[in-house]
Write a structure and sequence with these properties.
Distance between the termini: 31 Å
Radius of gyration: 13 Å
Strand order of the largest sheet: 2-1-3
Shape: globular
Low-confidence stretches: none
Number of strands: 3
Length: about 80
């Protein structure tokens, strides 16, 4: 799944934010960073275009066990 997502991300000029939700903030940040490192290494995503944010359990969730990753595509008006 990450490989096909990486193909799509690497073919766009947009910036990408990987948001990790669930668990502690520290673990959440590490999870998002691990995904980013994978995408940089195996999908040739440019490191200056992808960023990690870890929310842990700070942001509201739909259930106590909800752990997820969101990929946010930033599009700037030119």
């Amino acid at each position: 799944m990450l490989d096909s997502l990486g193909e799509k991300i690497s073919s766009t000029d947009n910036e990408i934010v990987v948001e990790s939700h669930g668990g502690s903030v520290e673990n959440s940040i590490m999870r998002a960073n691990n995904i980013i490192q994978y995408l940089i290494r195996y999908s040739n995503v440019r490191p200056d275009r992808i960023f990690a944010v870890g929310f842990g359990q700070i942001a509201p969730q739909i259930g106590a066990e909800n752990s997820r990753l969101d990929f946010v595509i930033i599009e700037y008006n030119k």
